């Protein structure tokens, strides 16, 4: 299949945080490099699917909104994930379905209406040179993104689209069941971890039977949850490798769920780890939203994740 690339959009207004994300950077944690990738795997995957892209194509993760793009060519796009009040030439843009954008039209992301992170995928995906096997942008590590150095978008940047000739959009819209209402309280599936037995009985009861609130101290590295303090008998431990969704409990007893840009090792006891889809769901929660933790088994977690990946042909 012949592949070409061209400038697809000019950044008129960069907004607070818009980052290029493919599936993530794997096999490099031994170097102290984190994975990056989409904070909301579900929304990212659907944006790419609706744009006719294969798994792993690079899309733009837009957090909070405030981004304005001007099309520099005709291109089919899809926006999935959060509703950030996006418009095309001041007309509301349909979400969760492919839309044709003409050269010269303006795409504006407003502010959060439902959820926190929207994903913009052009047909063919965005193009950038991979760094350590991925274009995912991790600003803290200075890796990936359109310039290869982890830079956020800036006014005047031009975003290149990688267009695969002959690739057709196969799905006209996402099923209603896939369009999550991120305003609803979320139940997050958690796999109990190695130190779970070291938490007091009262703490374990509180962890899984009371509501947690998303703190305003949240980013792509992790999300702090506030609620009843959890007490652990382990006061010191050797740092261990940290996976996606790991729920660490520091001395103040308030859990921190670690996301895509997390550190690679950590020395706080862990309640367990959120499943990948639960970590994705948490990434769409605004500060102040309520969530609950629900213990799950490895078998159930694997079954849910395999079903999700199989639905995308991977």
Automatic annotation (TrEMBL):
NCBIfam families, sorted: urea_amlyse_rel
Keywords, ordered alphabetically: ATP-binding, Hydrolase, Nucleotide-binding, Transferase
Carboxyltransferase domain: residues covered: 30-312
GO MF terms, alphabetically ordered: ATP binding; hydrolase activity; transferase activity
Keyword Nucleotide-binding in annotation: yes
Organism, as annotated: Vreelandella salicampi
Highest taxon in the source lineage: Bacteria
Protein name: Biotin-dependent carboxyltransferase family protein
Cited Pfam families: CT_A_B (PF02626)
Lineage per the UniProt record: Bacteria, Pseudomonadati, Pseudomonadota, Gammaproteobacteria, Oceanospirillales
